[in-house]
Specification:
This protein has 437 residues and is of the alpha/beta class. The chain has 13 helices and 17 strands. The protein folds into 3 domains: 151 residues, NAD(P)-binding Rossmann-like Domain (Rossmann fold, 3-Layer(aba) Sandwich); 161 residues, Dihydrodipicolinate Reductase, domain 2; 84 residues, Alpha-Beta Plaits. 35% of the residues lie in helices and 28% in strands. Helix 3 packs parallel to helix 4 and helix 12 runs antiparallel to helix 13. The chain is elongated. The structure holds NADP nicotinamide-adenine-dinucleotide phosphate (NAP). NADP nicotinamide-adenine-dinucleotide phosphate (NAP) binds next to helix 1.
Length: 437
């Protein structure tokens, strides 16, 4: 299939040959002929940056494709697309920038680099009339970014909620289904390769915040750096919280959320008690999902694998094909998906929610009264209270109290909890979890 004026042999340079690099190479091997047949593009990964060429990569790739010098890729005039799959912020950002300066379009799966340097890279790509695509950076194999910015472009979105991190969803699912505690499940997840040796970025919610920052830019046209997103991870979730959620018809999920109300956008990454009737509550194990509400399409959920070599490779290849379709056309650069930072929408740190609060107190008469008085004085209404059977610890009689609080501003709640903590009967505030209606 030849068409006039179009170079159908698309030569790609790839930086990195780890999990996603291998998955991308393998997905192309599996589907090269089908892609050629349906699009007319003969896509070939011709050069691969491999800093350890002798390392066994578990995949059969001709040695001559490897180079340890990234300049071999930048300076190859036949390569029109560079795929960045090394991860981390640097040198990944500088490599992407250099590829763009050499007139090459860039595909990346790197949410960490994009969340921090997306604006810089997007502007550089526009300046050089090349394309920057990053479908794999949010929710791996799920084509959420392309869908939001093509088929769903006619909508104004009010809500985006996502389970964007497979590791934490796996841990929470295992805790809930098998009654295991956090540390035990984390160890098991590490042994099975579902969690990194250093799980901080996942379990503290930083990875989800990077992805949410990208989604906010696409959906709401605002630049909110990941470290400005209120972020709470899952490390404080205990078996008591899981048990309460189960008894009360919830599943605890790590939810990345951005909402627009009356011209203001607020966002967070935090554990949320999701009612079992909510589609996100039934997303289990390593799966990801994104639930969006648009003013025309209404509610919509995207579900699938948010990680893994082949699913992520599928998204990377989709971007390569997307760029191939645009190359050689007059409109040199892309409008979708486009990172935007100038919508004029106001960013607000205020957000109200129902909350679940678990605390440990000395078991004696009058304790509940003291705590509810503090809540009352702070204008916080209590929907329900549960007291667990008392127990002895270090010669003291202690009890676990659980409060469900009606809609309250998070800062207002935190200030009230500071007061509760000052009471001589309060041992600890053990967890604060949002409750979804
Ligand atoms: N894994 C997933 O399922 C997944 C899903 C979505 C997005 N992502 C994103 O995709 C990117 C790649 O992830 P991955 O899981 O494939 O990582 P990975 O398995 O650690 O692979 C990274 C590759 O990059 C190479 N590399 C690292 N730093 C380099 C440098 N300075 N110069 C040259 N090569 C370098 C590594 O080389 P050596 O092997 O020689 O050390 C390795 O080949 C990351 O941005 C990640 O966030 C991953």
């Amino acid at each position: 299939m030849e068409s006039k004026g179009m170079n159908n042999h698309i030569k790609v340079g790839m930086l990195g040959i780890g999990n996603v690099g291998r998955g991308t190479y393998q997905a192309l091997e599996m589907n090269h002929d089908r892609i050629l047949e349906t699009t007319g593009f003969d896509i070939e990964i011709t050069r691969i940056l491999n800093r350890h060429p002798d390392k066994d990569r578990g995949i059969d790739i001709p040695k001559e494709k490897y180079t340890a010098d990234v300049n071999d890729i930048f300076n190859d005039p036949e390569i029109s697309i560079v795929v960045e799959l090394i991860g981390g912020i640097e040198p990944a950002t500088e490599y992407m920038a250099e590829a763009i300066r050499h007139g090459k379009s860039v595909v990346t799966a790197n949410k960490a680099a994009l969340a921090v340097n997306g604006k810089y890279l997007a502007e550089l790509a526009q300046e050089h009339h090349v394309l920057l695509r990053f479908e794999a950076a949010v929710a791996g194999g799920i084509p959420i970014l392309t869908s939001l910015t093509t088929a769903l472009l006619s909508n104004s979105f009010t809500d985006v909620q996502g389970i964007l991190n497979g590791t934490t969803n796996y841990i929470l699912t295992q805790m809930s289904e098998y009654g295991k505690d956090y540390a035990e499940v984390l160890k098991d997840a590490q042994a099975k390769g579902f969690a990194e040796a250093d799980p901080t970025a996942d379990v503290e919610g930083f990875d989800a915040a990077n992805k949410l920052s990208i989604l906010i830019s696409l959906v709401f046209g605002l630049g909110v750096a990941p470290d400005k997103i209120p972020t709470q991870g899952i490390t404080a979730i205990g078996s008591e919280d899981i048990a309460y959620a189960k008894e009360s018809g919830y599943n605890i999920k790590l939810i990345a959320s951005a909402r627009e109300r009356n011209g203001k956008m607020n966002c967070s990454v935090s554990p949320v008690m999701m009612p079992l009737s909510h589609p996100l509550a039934s997303v289990s194990n390593e799966f990801n999902a994104v639930f969006v509400t648009g003013n025309a399409v209404d509610s919509l959920m995207f579900y699938g694998r948010g990680a893994g070599p082949l699913p992520t490779g599928s998204a990377v290849l989709g971007d390569i094909i997307g760029i191939a379709r645009k190359q050689g056309k007059d409109s040199a650069y892309d409008l979708v998906p486009q990172l935007r930072y100038d919508s004029g929408l106001e960013y607000s740190e205020e957000s109200t929610s129902k909350f679940y609060v678990r605390m440990t107190v000395t078991e004696k008469p009058g304790v509940l009264g003291k705590i509810t008085t503090i809540f009352g004085n702070a204008g916080i209404s209590v929907e329900a209270i549960q007291q667990k059977p008392p127990y002895d610890k270090n010669g003291e009689r202690l009890a676990t109290l659980i409060f469900i609080l009606f809609e309250v501003e998070r800062m207002q709640l935190m200030n009230a909890l500071d007061e509760v903590l000052k009471l001589d009967v309060t041992k600890s505030i053990d967890n604060v979890i949002k409750v979804e209606e």
